[in-house]
Structure formats: C-alpha cells, structure tokens
Design goal:
mainly alpha, 3-stranded antiparallel β-sheet, globular
C-alpha cells in the first residue's frame, strides 16, 4: 500500500565458517555431518517454539506463549528485542545493537550488557527462539506471530480489495489493521533506533487512518467521519490531506459553510506557520464546493480498471408461479420499460379495482425486465388504500438505506431526501416498483427522474395528473384467462370433466384474479368436493352485493367466497383480527384478541394464511391485505354476535398491550409505583427474562401499540389507553417513535376532553408534556404541565400530582426560571415521598441538583445528585441511574472535578446506548464535550460535539442543536479552526433568534471578537 513504511529488506542469514580445506580429513567430515544434523534438529525445534510465541511492537514490546505473558526484562532489554523483531529476521551484529540501544554514547560495558540481555531473553523465550549467528543475534518470527507483520498483510489485502472495487472489504481490513495498535508503538523503549522506528510506525498508522477515512467517504459514511476528522485535524493541523477529507465530509453532510471555513482556516494557518499556500488539491476542492459541484455529493468513482462494488437492491417480491394471461399488458409494459435506457424516465401506472391483479402483473413484468436494470430494483407497498398511507419521506429513508446510504447521512426533510435519492440514482439503472399508491402527490418525490431508471406504479386510482406517465387500465380477466388460472390451481383433471361448472365458478368470482385464487385454493384443499359443489355454493351469494358500489361489487364477492367456506372458529378469527388498526399483529396479541391459547391461535392464523385471507408478514407476525381488512371488519359488523364482542376483543388487545408495557416499565424502573396507579386489566400480558428482551418487544410492537391507543377512544377504554401511553413513555424519550407517540397522545387527550374525563385528560397532558420536552417545545410543555397539575388536583390523581411539578421543574431549568423550578421540584419531592415512590423522588432530587447548580450552589448540587443515585442504585434502577449520573456529571464539571465528571458521564453513556435512548446518548456526548472544553481539551471536545450532532439529528429539537453548535464552535476555536467556529455560532444564533431564546446574546458575544479581529 502506498505510503506504508518498509523495514529494511531481509538478507539471507550468514552460514557458519567453512573448515580449512588443507586440514580436512575423514573425522572432520563426520563431525561436519553430525553438526549439520544437530543444526537441522535445532532449526526444527526453533520453528516449533517460534510458532508458539507471539510478539507485539505496535504498543508496548511484549511476548506471549499461548495466553501466558513472558517477561521481556528491562527497557534496554526490550530495546534489544524490538531491534531484532523489526529486522525482518536478519542478523544484527553486536555493534549494530549497541548503536540501536545507546547511540553514539554507549556505556563502557555495552558489549557485555548486550550479551547479558540476549542470554536473559533466550531463557525467557525458550531455546531456539533467539539464535546466535556470525557474531550477532536474530529472531525470525512467523508472518502471523508479529503484530506488525499481520498489520502489513492486512494492509496489502486491503489495497488489493480497493483495487478490485471492493471498498467495503478494504475498509474492514484497514480497520482490522488499525485495531492491532495498542497505544504508542514501542512504548517506553529507549534508544535512537526505537525512536526512529516509532516515528515511522506512527506515520504509517496515520496514513492507514487517512486511507480508511477516504474509504469512509467513498462508501457514504461522511457524517460519521466528521468527528474523527475534527480530532485528527486538531492533532495534526498542518496535514492538508486530513483537511481535505474534512471539507469533503462536511460538504456531503450538508454543511457547506463549515467546509469553506475549514479551507479559510487552513489557508491562514499555512501562511502563518510556513508562509505557503494550500496545495492545489485543497484549492480545487474549495472551488468545487463554491460551485456546488454535483459530483462531490456522490462517492468517488473508482479507477477505470476497478470493478466498483455497489449496493444492488433486489427487493421485488416473488412472482407467482401460476401467472396466467395478460399477455398484451405484459408486452406493452415490457416494451415501455425497455426504453428506460435512452429516455429521461419511463413511468407506467397501472390502475384498477382491488383484487384485479395489479400487483401480480407489475411484479411479473418487473422480474421479466430485470436485465434492463442491472443496478437493482426497489419495491415498496405504499398502503394507499388504507387509512394510513406510507409517508414519502419514510419511504425515501428506506430506499436510501437500501441503496447503501447510512442512517446518519439521510437528511430529515422530504425535499432533502428526495434530492439525495435522485443524486444517488444518477448514473445507475434501477427499476422502482411503487405498489398500492394513494395518489400522484404521494409518489412524485419517489420518482427517479434520471436516464436509465424507470418507475412502475400500481394504484386503485388512475394517475391522470402524473405528467408523462404511461397509463394502463387493468380490467378483469377474460373468461378464458380466468379458467386457465382456476385450472392451474385446482388441477386439469378436476376441471376437464366439469368445464361448465368451472365457468360458473369463475363467473361468480367476477373474473377477478384474487377471487378466483381464493375460491380455487379452497377447492384444491378439499379433495372430496367437485367443481359443481363449489359452483352450487356460490350460486346464491350475489344477492349480498346490492348495497355495494359497482367497482367494489366483485371485490366483496370474492371475499364472500372464501369467508363463506371457513370453519366457525376460522371465521371468528378472521372477523375479530381485522378490527385491530395496526399495520400487523403478533401471535401473542392475536391470542389476546381471540381469547385463545397461543397454539390454537397459531393454528387458526396459519389456516387463514393457507386460504390467502391472511398474510404472514414475518415469523410470528401476520397482516391483512388492505381490502381484506375492510371486508373482515364488514363481516364483524354483520356477523359478530352479540355486537359487544367486538368491543371485548379490542378491550382484550388493549389489556394485553397495557399489561405487557407495564411489565417492560417495571423491568426498566424497579420499585416505581406506576403499576399501583394504572387501570386494572383482565387479560395478562407477557413476561420477559431480562430488560433487553423487554426492550426488543416494546420497540418491535411500537407501531401496533400506538395504533391501539388511537383506536381505543370509547369511554370504557380511554383511561387504559392513556395509561398505555404512560407505560410506553420510552418510545417518546428515545426519539424513535416520537411522531406516532405524539399523534396518539393528542388523540386521547382530545377524546378525554370530549368525554369530560378529567383524570384521563390530566394523564394525557402529562404524556404530552414529555413529548414537548423531548422536542424542545418548552412553552407548550409548561402549559400542558400546568393544566395537568390543576386537573390532577380536581381528580385526586397522584400520578400527575407528582410528575407534572417534576416536569415543570425540568422546564424551568431550560427557561432559566430557577426559583420557580426549585419550588416545583420541592413540591414534586414531597408528593413522591407521600406516595412512597422512591424512584420518582430520586428523579426530582437529580433535577433539583441541576437547579442548584444553575443557582451557583455547587456543593448542594453534587449532594442532591448523589442522593438520587443512591436511591436508584439501591433499587437496581440502571436506566434512571444513568440520568442521575448525568446530573452528577454536570455538577462535578462545575466544581472542577473533570476526571470524576467524565467517569460519571461515560457510565451514563454506556447505559443510554444499551437502552436505545438516543436523545440521552446525544445529550451525554454533548456534556462530555463541555467537560473536555472546561479541562482545556478542545480537540476531544470538538470530536464529542460532532458525535452529539450526528446522533441528535431529527430528535431533541432545535434549541438543543443550538447548544451543541455553540460548544462545537468553542472547541473549534480552541484548536484554531476560527472560520468553522464562526459558521457554527452563526447557525446557533439563527436558531436562538427564531426561538426567541436568551442564549442568543452569549453567542453573539462570541462572534464579536472574531468580527473585530
């Protein structure tokens, strides 16, 4: 690999002295052969021992045999060992070793000392590892026994992978090589030789790091690279390649102004320190950024000889093996897609009623056209026929991930995601299948818009307002095609003898493919039925279609066919499961809806999957086709008797979610009294072996759980729905499901207001307070918390009576209303103690610590935080104990105990990461950056602040982002990156001005001296 430092080339070891030919005789000849035999045995022994001993020089000089660490002696003895290890097996003479260890001023007994060191090493390493040759010494480690040799081999393999276009593999190999370093190479080894080698190895390490960072940018990990590049540019301010990579990473992360500021800082530094201008590559990059060069937004293209390895998504669902007919449509759409290579973009939109086979045809055509789109195929079900159609920005996020874009590089807004999506597709030939679209506005952001790409759209609505689209109206099958499909599923033998009856069946199905498939599947599963029996069963079914719209007549008829043939238990399961609003349902939740054992439920659901009335979304999870769900609900309204059974089914589902979420809450917060104040449930929930399994359940069920909350608006269920939100509050605090959580909380609050349920409204407002706090909307949070306190007093509800003043105290911290906050938190502490809620008391104590800290009472702030931690720790409360350590870390920072502050914050950081609390993870990194800044470690502070920015994207609100930018600016200023610091401060000022935050004055004061300079 270019730039890798090389040790001197290996020389062939010198052989022993040759006997004097004039004195050679027969005995001498025999002795020679004996000596050669002994040397051969010694060589074999040396190989065996050497293979068992491992050495390291990329850190302290050490040796191991298996897992045993060997004694390598004094610093000078380790210097001799290092000199031998780094000579690649060549013999080092005594004089060379003396020069290596002592340089130009060796001690008088240097030769004796070398011999002593060699003797001690020989004993420590076993005979045969260190050998004496030609008046010198040598060690010949195997290629896998010296860490430096392993690193060099990994680097060489990485170079080959990169040359072949496999950048991801090259990146992995270089990371492995860098992982072999253990601090400073040749640590604490004296002597000029070690000093020179140390410098060479450090330079090689830096070159490897630059190469890996270059690969990071090539594979799209630019946002992740910024933190490391910021720290490296601080440590090596004159290294222009690092500055170049930092500029590129910032630009690709949408931070153009900062990228240009890096160039300005670099130019000023080089002029001041060296009196030179930046190198041409850096100046050219600056110019390309100024011109907003589109090529910079994409990873660097590999060399022409390299075959680039890119992510090729292959997301098309499997085509059905019995695809039948539609030959004219297949030909028409196939021809259209074949033009994508030369047209700006080929868009074909299939429209038709539900069940007519739009998706089946589109998937079949897409598979047939794969050869025209070698760079991949994207697929999404847009759920346009349901009540919750997929949001374009969510779909774009999934598409960008499928195309290889890391999460941290995906922008937040729809427009930015759409722009990055089009840029990523530029130059690639990809087919995008947009299934089940709601309307043209939903799919416009999802269209590629570049030559070589194509989009295939299916929708129940005609896309007449989709400019340039090739519209295809898909009708029902012809009788011949319908009969062919029926025959393929049922079997030719059964149909051949009853052709007329088969025509009657497909006619009763309205010639709709989905209906035919359902009817045929039922017949195929019943070997005792004839086609005539099925036809007779269907003869009177059409009288039920009188009230349906014309477009939906045949659709409902198709489902009537399958539903009418279900066994009573299957039919009940089909009806009741369709009542749940979530995108899918787990087996355990389905068992709650049906009030059946788990095994019985699984058997019922799998039988419904077999009839095509239910889909298996994943192992243990099931979902309805949107049209089938609508039909299932219609059946429930019509057939579920008594009608109250529908409410009971949804009530059992709500009970299941509430009981299970309460179990998750209890595992995360042992000793918390929440469970004592939740509404009682009649249906038991799940239990978990540990908190990690509980977290997995909560986050995997988030969408279905929150949908259940929104659906549970009946007065009898409202209080349990609100309590479910409270028990699942981690979904809001993590930031992962904040939008859905807020929508559910808003819905139940409005419903509580309509019903006049004071208790439910107060609790709903408390959950909304938490949502607003996470989002940084402090005024709204305070209004809701104030209202919640009043309602709690009216209702005599202890939960908001405790938590609402606690929340108001937190809000007061952010709004600099410290006296008010102290009052609220003392009230919260009293209420928590009255209710014997020790974890709640600990929370209020830690928050009061922050109030005292803001008021300058540092000693009491430390004491209050420690009191809170003691309570948490005594109850095994790891997650909230992390919040306590966060508060203590702030207090210790203010008191100047920077080492202890860092330790407490790092402890908190580990827990937040383990608990998936991204908001708190980001905020803890921000606080560690503040500690580093206070401890005069600006480079470390800049790296931590960059990490915080990356994690807090999209969560935490703009106010918190302004705070992080302010600290990042201070850190950058401390490492001499003045221009970039100004950019951060200006962005923070803009945020604070828009929010009306008082912090704006402090940041303006930071900008003022820079402006005067």
């Amino acid at each position: 690999m270019d730039g890798v430092p090389r040790v001197p080339e290996q020389r062939t070891p010198a052989s022993g002295p040759r006997p004097d030919e004039g004195t050679q005789h027969k005995n001498q000849h025999q002795k020679k052969h004996q000596r050669q035999h002994q040397q051969h045995q010694q060589h074999q022994q040396q190989q065996e021992i050497t293979e068992a001993v491992r050495f390291s020089v990329l850190g302290p000089v050490r040796a191991w045999r298996g897992g045993e660490s060997l004694n390598t002696g004094s610093p000078q003895q380790r210097a001799l060992l290092a000199a031998l290890l780094l000579r690649d097996g060549r013999t080092a003479t005594a004089s060379e070793l003396i020069d290596a260890i002592w340089g130009e001023e060796p001690p008088s007994q240097a030769l004796a000392a070398v011999r002593t060191y060699a003797s001690r090493l020989r004993k420590a390493l076993d005979p045969g590892v260190l050998v004496s040759e030609s008046g010198g010494y040598a060690i010949r480690p195997g290629s896998d026994t010296l860490d430096l040799a392993v690193a060099q081999e990994l680097a060489a393999d990485a170079e080959k992978s990169r040359a072949s276009g496999d950048r991801c593999q090259a990146r992995t190999l270089i990371n492995k090589a860098l992982g072999l370093w253990d601090g400073e190479p040749l640590a604490s080894v004296p002597g000029p030789y070690a000093e020179n080698q140390r410098a060479r190895l450090e330079e090689w390490r830096l070159q490897l790091t630059e190469t890996r960072l270059d690969l990071d940018l090539e594979v799209g990990c630019h946002a992740e690279a910024i933190s490391e590049l910021t720290a490296l540019t601080a440590a090596h301010p004159l290294r222009e390649r690092l500055r170049e990579l930092l500029m590129l990473a910032l630009y690709r992360s949408g931070r153009q102004a900062e990228a240009l500021a890096v160039y300005a800082d670099t130019r000023r530094l080089l002029a001041d320190e060296l009196g030179v201008d930046p190198r041409p590559e850096l100046s050219q990059l600056q110019q390309r950024i100024l011109e907003a060069d589109a090529d910079l937004a994409r990873p660097v293209e590999p060399a022409p000889s390299a075959a680039p390895t890119v992510v090729r998504p292959a997301q098309l669902p499997a085509t059905v093996p019995d695809f039948t007919g539609r030959s004219s449509f297949v030909r028409e759409l196939g021809d259209r897609l074949a033009t994508a290579e030369t047209s700006v973009m080929a868009v074909s939109a299939l429209a038709g009623i539900g069940g007519v086979g739009k998706t089946t045809l589109a998937v079949h055509v897409a598979h047939a056209a794969r050869s025209h789109f070698p760079d991949g195929q994207l697929y999404v079900d847009l759920q346009g026929a349901g009540s919750r159609a997929a949001e374009p920005e969510t779909v774009l996020g999934a598409f960008l991930r499928a195309l290889g874009t890391p999460d941290t590089s995906i922008p937040d807004t729809l427009d930015e995601r759409a722009a990055l999506y089009r840029s990523t597709l530029d130059g690639r030939r990809i087919l995008v299948l947009l299934d089940n679209a709601r309307d043209a506005s939903q799919i416009r952001p999802l269209l590629p818009g570049t030559t070589g790409c194509a989009a295939l759209v299916t929708s129940r609505a005609r896309m007449v307002d989709l400019a340039g689209a090739h519209l295809v109206d898909l009708d029902v099958m012809s009788p011949e095609e319908a009969l062919q499909l029926f025959t393929k599923i049922v079997g030719a033998e059964r149909v051949a003898s009853e052709r007329e009856a088969a025509l009657d069946v497909v006619g009763a199905c309205g010639f709709l493919p989905l209906a035919i498939r359902i009817a045929a599947s039922r017949l195929a599963a019943r070997r005792t039925w004839t086609v005539s029996v099925l036809a007779a069963k269907l003869a009177d079914e059409r009288r039920r279609l009188d009230e349906l719209q014309a477009g939906d007549l045949a659709v409902k008829a198709t489902f009537e066919l399958g539903y009418g043939q279900l066994e009573p238990q299957q039919a009940r399961a089909f009806r009741l499961l369709g009542l749940a609003d979530g995108p899918d349902i787990s087996l355990a939740a389905a068992a709650a809806v049906l009030d059946e054992p788990l095994q019985t439920t699984e058997d019922l659901l799998e039988s419904l999957v077999d009839t095509s009335l239910l889909e298996s979304a994943a192992p243990g999870r099931y979902r309805y086709h949107d049209l089938v769900r609508l039909y299932a609900r219609a059946c429930a309204e019509r057939d579920e008797q008594p009608p109250v059974e529908r409410e009971r089914a949804l009530s059992r589902l709500l009970d299941f979610y509430l009981a299970t979420a309460a179990a998750v809450y209890a595992l995360e917060r042992p000793g918390d009294r929440l469970a004592d104040h939740l509404e009682p449930t009649d249906f038991r929930g799940l239990t978990f072996p540990d908190r990690h399994a509980a977290q997995d359940w909560l986050y995997s069920e988030a969408n279905s759980l929150l949908a259940c909350v929104q659906q549970s608006s009946a007065p009898a269920m409202l209080r349990r729905a609100v309590d479910l939100l409270w028990a699942a509050k981690d979904l809001a605090e993590s930031g992962a499901n904040a939008k859905q959580y807020e929508a559910a909380a808003t819905a139940v609050r409005e419903r509580a207001l309509e019903c006049g349920d004071v208790r439910a409204e107060g609790r709903a407002l408390t959950t909304l307070t938490n949502v607003h706090l996470v989002a940084g909307r402090f005024d709204q949070a305070d209004q809701d918390a104030q209202r919640a306190m009043l309602l709690a007093e009216d209702a005599g509800d202890p939960l908001p009576s405790c938590w609402a003043p606690n929340d108001r105290g937190i809000i007061a911290i952010y709004q600099n209303r410290h006296a008010d906050g102290e009052g609220y938190l003392n009230q919260a502490i009293a209420n928590f103690r009255l209710g014997k809620n020790r974890p709640g008391e600990a929370s209020a104590l830690c928050n009061l610590s922050r109030i005292h800290l803001a008021m300058g009472q540092t000693v009491s702030a430390v004491d209050l935080a420690q009191q809170g931690i003691d309570i948490y720790d005594s109850m095994g409360h790891s997650l909230r104990g992390a919040n306590g350590r966060y508060a203590l870390g702030l207090a210790l920072t203010r008191s100047g105990q920077f080492a202890d502050a860092t330790d407490r914050l790092l402890e908190a950081l580990d827990v937040f990461r383990d608990s998936r609390q991204r908001l708190w993870e980001g905020m803890t990194l921000f606080r560690i950056a503040e500690v580093d800044l206070a401890a005069q470690r600006p480079a470390a502070a800049a790296a931590r602040a960059e990490q915080a920015l990356a994690i807090l994207r999209g969560i935490g609100g703009e106010w918190r982002r302004g705070n992080v930018l302010t600290v990042l600016g201070r850190a950058l200023h401390g490492i001499g990156q003045i221009g970039r610091a100004q950019v951060c401060w200006r962005e923070a000022v803009a945020i604070y001005e828009e929010l009306g935050s008082p912090e704006v004055a402090d940041v303006r004061s930071l900008l003022a001296p820079v402006a005067r300079a």
